Write a sequence for this structure.
């Protein structure tokens, strides 16, 4: 599966985005002093102990949590890079730039207004993962692949396309590119009524201005063919490759991954 690689531009832009966010945060980390939870704030080469009674505790605790998450994500990206590529990433961090304007129809503000998990699957569902009751194994596999690759997702969210309401199987957020895209699983394609329902849904997307391969991606399945975890993982990598090709260019001004 490593023959299908995450693009270099994905690693470069993601790590540069993390570095930028870390630089904007105060240098504060969680710690302890005896039996007390404290925060350690570093300013002007000095370290200060911050306790819960401090008026800035809530703000600094939020910053510490953000910093911890970003550092963890950065470590995961470097580890993932070592699985795909044999040369160091550090020297490539100035090799790609992000387009100033997203080419996709939906941006981060659109993503923020989406409500997660409208699915009515039973609570005892065998396909439970990451706080969601998925309807099928393929949906659970998609969620697992997205989380493994560090992609934010919302499941079965409500989307109003003019006067038509649809429920995309997945919405994915690429914060670094200020864009949001959708994924639909076209299941049971041998069933006439299912084909008709999918056609109506895809027509609604198209009339609203969604472009396949830019704003909307598809995975097909039938009762006799269901993509496994590895196949879904490859599909997710292909989506990332495509998104990167739309939003990044190299130091020579060429749009490429």
């Amino acid at each position: 599966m490593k023959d299908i690689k995450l693009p270099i531009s994905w690693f470069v832009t993601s790590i540069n985005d993390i570095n930028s966010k870390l630089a904007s945060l105060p240098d504060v980390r969680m710690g302890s002093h005896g039996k007390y939870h404290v925060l350690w704030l570093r300013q002007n080469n000095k370290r200060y102990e911050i306790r819960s009674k401090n008026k800035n505790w809530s703000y600094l605790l939020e910053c510490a949590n953000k910093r911890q998450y970003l550092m963890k994500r950065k470590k995961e990206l470097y580890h993932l890079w070592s699985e795909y590529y044999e040369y160091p990433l550090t020297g490539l961090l100035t090799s790609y730039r992000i387009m100033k304007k997203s080419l996709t129809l939906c941006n981060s503000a659109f993503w923020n207004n989406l409500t997660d998990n409208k699915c009515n699957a039973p609570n005892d569902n065998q396909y439970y993962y990451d706080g969601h009751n998925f309807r099928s194994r393929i949906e659970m596999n998609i969620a697992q692949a997205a989380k493994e690759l560090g992609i934010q997702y919302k499941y079965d969210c409500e989307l109003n396309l003019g006067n038509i309401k649809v429920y995309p199987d997945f919405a994915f957020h690429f914060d670094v590119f200020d864009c949001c895209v959708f994924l639909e699983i076209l299941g049971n394609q041998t069933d006439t009524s299912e084909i008709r329902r999918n056609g109506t849904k895809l027509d609604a997307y198209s009339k609203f201005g969604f472009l396949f391969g830019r704003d909307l991606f598809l995975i097909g399945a039938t009762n006799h063919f269901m993509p496994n975890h590895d196949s879904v993982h490859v599909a997710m990598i292909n989506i990332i490759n495509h998104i990167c090709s739309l939003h990044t260019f190299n130091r020579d001004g060429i749009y490429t991954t």
In short: Helices lie at 8-24, 57-84, 108-112, 137-148, 192-208, 229-247. The chain has a mean pLDDT of 87. The longest strand covers residues 36-43. Residues 159 and 166 are 5 Å apart (CA to CA).
